[in-house]
């Protein structure tokens, strides 16, 4: 772990080269867990840019390739990384999952699990703002439901954007039970702020 202080001195391109040299994107998952645990005591902490590069190298390929629930090792590594670098992880992972083609059921479940159990409140807000930047789909409704399940206090502008998006999208989801549950959750959790 003491040797990992080199990560703080690398430029972004050097860090990408180092990750490639170490084959971090394809290392065995138990090694991934160990590597992420070594990052936690690192002082000073990694910069946002360096943490985002590591998140991309360590997790992006694995998460986008999921066709079944993630292994306990992958979840342990994600949870460990999230405990210190949740914001950079969200910037990398959430954006990729939201823009990914097709249903991505396993990726959506993984996002829900991260929102429900791992992310800090400011990262939950980041996930919500990222979801609201793309057209809503049935695939994204469970992610919004997970965000609302946290019952975090949202900044007024983000809550306004959520309500406006739901109002605009309502006709497209007229027969969706998940959408109805989502609207009910918004009205329940934020009833004092929604008129």
From TrEMBL:
InterPro entries xrefs: FANCE (IPR039685), Fanconi_anaemia_gr_E_prot_C (IPR021025)
GO terms under cellular component: Fanconi anaemia nuclear complex
GO biological process: interstrand cross-link repair
Superkingdom classification of source: Eukaryota
Positions of the Fanconi Anaemia group E protein C-terminal domain: 1-194
PANTHER family, per the entry: FANCONI ANEMIA GROUP E PROTEIN
Name of the protein described by the UniProt record: FANCE protein
Source organism (scientific name): Quiscalus mexicanus
Lineage, uppermost ranks: Eukaryota, Metazoa, Chordata, Craniata, Vertebrata
């Amino acid at each position: 772990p003491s040797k990992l202080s080199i990560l703080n001195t690398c430029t972004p391109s050097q860090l990408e080269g180092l990750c490639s040299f170490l084959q971090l994107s394809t290392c065995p998952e138990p090694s991934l867990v160990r590597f992420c645990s070594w990052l936690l005591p690192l002082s000073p902490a990694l910069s946002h840019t360096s943490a985002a590069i590591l998140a991309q190298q360590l997790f992006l390929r694995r998460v986008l390739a999921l066709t079944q629930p993630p292994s306990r090792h992958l979840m342990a590594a994600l949870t460990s990384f999230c405990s210190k670098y949740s914001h950079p992880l969200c910037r990398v992972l959430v954006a990729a999952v939201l823009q990914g083609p097709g249903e991505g059921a396993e990726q959506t479940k993984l996002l829900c699990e991260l929102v429900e159990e791992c992310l800090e409140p400011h990262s939950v807000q980041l996930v919500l703002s990222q979801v609201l930047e793309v057209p809503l789909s049935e695939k994204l409704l469970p992610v919004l439901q997970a965000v609302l399940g946290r019952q975090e206090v949202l900044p007024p502008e983000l809550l306004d954007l959520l309500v406006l998006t739901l109002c605009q999208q309502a006709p497209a989801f007229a027969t969706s039970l998940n959408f109805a549950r989502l609207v009910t959750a918004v009205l329940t959790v934020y009833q004092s702020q929604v008129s």
